[in-house]
UniProtKB/TrEMBL annotation:
One record GO biological process: spermidine biosynthetic process
The name this protein goes by in its record: Spermidine synthase
Domain PABS, first and last residues per copy: 6-241
Gene Ontology cellular component annotations, sorted alphabetically: cytosol
Active site positions, chain numbering: D161
Secreted among keywords: no
Keywords: Polyamine biosynthesis, Transferase
Pfam families xref list: Spermine_synt_N, Spermine_synth
Stated role: Catalyzes the production of spermidine from putrescine and decarboxylated S-adenosylmethionine (dcSAM). Has a strong preference for putrescine as substrate, and has very low activity towards 1,3-diaminopropane. Has extremely low activity towards spermidine.
Similarity annotation: Belongs to the spermidine/spermine synthase family.
Taxonomy, superkingdom: Eukaryota
Keyword Disulfide bond: no
Length: 289
């Protein structure tokens, strides 16, 4: 079956067998095969432009803010002073755009494996791509797993904004990656990784959560609503090195005025707390209670 048929794109994947989301397409704005993956930008009828990698929706202009804000501010607001931040993946630039808004952040290092994703994003998705050109952001092209091996004791927060665990991102969903991230963090440092949804592939979510739990003193799973991700939800695994922490309670609480000034549309202290309240089946699967 073609991913684009009769004017509709369908997100077909073995990761969610038997079900998929479809978006009506007005125009294919860009299509290429890079060294690592198939890259497409679609003008959709309902969700603005959409970035598609290897047939999987990475972000749409209409709902990307939920994911980008949550994967950034859940860890940043759980850390007392997140000065040095590392982003792995994140080629569209949306996470970098959000991270630099936090007043404590002094410098962001970003490691993305595919230079073409960043170039395409700057060209077609400038509202996200803008993050990659911010003066506080240094971008490296390379494999996040390899980069992690070469950096020790350097970062306050590491955000892994990767594609799904098929293809180049596979190594970012292994326990050895969490071990390397621990070494790359300063004491008290925090990691936050894209970790799938509890509504499909619960086993993958539990595995990723356990890898994090086996390596870090504190570990939690939160989620947010993103209508164009599989099942309309996406999860985040958070871990903290050495210090025990209650991720449910943000240590940095932004006022309404600060949230407005930063242009945040999804994240708030209230939604931070709510993100970690799980339905009973997921709570049991992850925490056993
Ligand atoms: N928000 C998105 C999602 O959850 O679907 C992810 C967006 S971002 C575009 C994902 C990026 O991770 C891609 O640009 C991809 O090239 C990058 N990536 C995949 N594997 C990587 C690796 N091993 N090292 C660095 N970047 C990687």
């Amino acid at each position: 079956m073609d991913a684009i048929k009769d004017g509709w794109f369908s997100e077909l994947s073995t990761l969610w067998p038997g079900v998929c989301l479809s978006l009506e397409v007005e125009k294919i704005l860009h299509s290429e095969k890079s060294e690592f993956q198939d890259i497409k930008v679609l003008q959709t009828k309902s969700h603005g432009k959409a970035l598609i990698l290897d047939g999987i929706i990475q972000c749409t202009e209409n709902d990307e803010f939920s994911y980008q804000e949550m994967i950034s501010f859940l860890p940043l607001c759980s850390h007392p002073n997140p000065k040095q931040v590392l982003i792995v993946g994140g080629g569209d630039g949306g996470v970098a755009r959000e991270v630099v808004k936090h007043p404590a952040v002094e410098h962001v290092t970003q490691v993305e494996i595919d230079a073409r994703v960043m170039q395409v994003s700057k060209q077609y998705l400038p509202n996200m791509g803008v993050g990659l050109s911010h003066p506080k952001v240094s971008v490296f092209v390379g494999d996040g797993f390899k980069f992690m091996k070469e950096h020790k004791n350097q970062f306050d927060v590491i955000i892994t904004d990767s594609s799904d665990p098929i293809g180049p991102a596979e190594s970012l969903f292994q326990q050895s990656y969490f071990e390397l991230m621990r070494e790359a963090l300063k004491p008290g440092g925090i990691v936050c990784s894209q970790a799938g949804t509890v509504w499909c592939g619960l086993e993958t979510v539990v595995n990723t959560f356990n890898f994090c739990k086996n390596v870090f003193e504190s570990c939690s799973y939160g989620y947010s609503a993103v209508p164009t991700y599989p099942t309309g939800q996406i999860g985040y695994v958070l871990g903290r090195k050495i210090e025990r922490t209650n991720f449910k309670e943000p240590v940095r609480i932004f006022s309404e005025m600060e949230l407005e000034k930063m242009g945040l549309r999804y994240y708030s202290p209230e939604i931070h707390r709510a993100a970690f309240v799980l339905p009973r089946f997921a709570q049991k699967a992850l925490y056993g209670t």
